[in-house]
Amino acid sequence: SQQGEEDPQALSIQEGENATMNCSYKTSINNLQWYRQNSGRGLVHLILIRSNEREKHSGRLRVTLDTSKKSSSLLITASRAADTASYFCATVGSSNTGKLIFGQGTTLQVKP
Amino acid sequence: DGGITQSPKYLFRKEGQNVTLSCEQNLNHDAMYWYRQDPGQGLRLIYYSQIVNDFQKGDIAEGYSVSREKKESFPLTVTSAQKNPTAFYLCATMGVRSADTQYFGPGTRLTVL
How far is CA A102 from CA A40, A96, B29, B113, in A? Predict the structure, then answer.
């Protein structure tokens, strides 16, 4: 079942601007992850935030998690054309079965 | 994609034929997963295996079958019972030390004619 819903479905920005994507989920989680997918390729893990964390940084990426609202956001700062890709959030439930449940993704286009 | 290979990259089959997609890994990961991705959609879990000789159905297992005879290999068979098999299929692995992070192969695009 699809747990995550992502917003917006598509985003187009100019190089140098920031991009923000949001993810909402339905059940309690152990952690939430963000993945990136270039067109026609496999997914690449970007960052993981645990349920007891509120914010995490990795390079130009900033992830926030609000468990009370069951939502997360991914901010990419100073975007580059190479950031053009689809971005997916994925959650691991509290039962920790090792299963990821993916959202439907946000397609980001960064124009040079 | 390093450490996980999926073959072939593109696969064409006639309707009614079974087809097997390969997934091999050299990461020594215990868990392996098969996902299906349709255009503009997220990933849906077909089957997963957390240990050799054991596997569980995911959310959309009907019309698919798997085996896990070796740690390195987790082939997926798309049977003729799968009503709409044309899709992008992704294999992933997860190790004990990878903290729920999954590593993905490059995918196989299956087109049924």
Answer: 17, 15, 21, 29
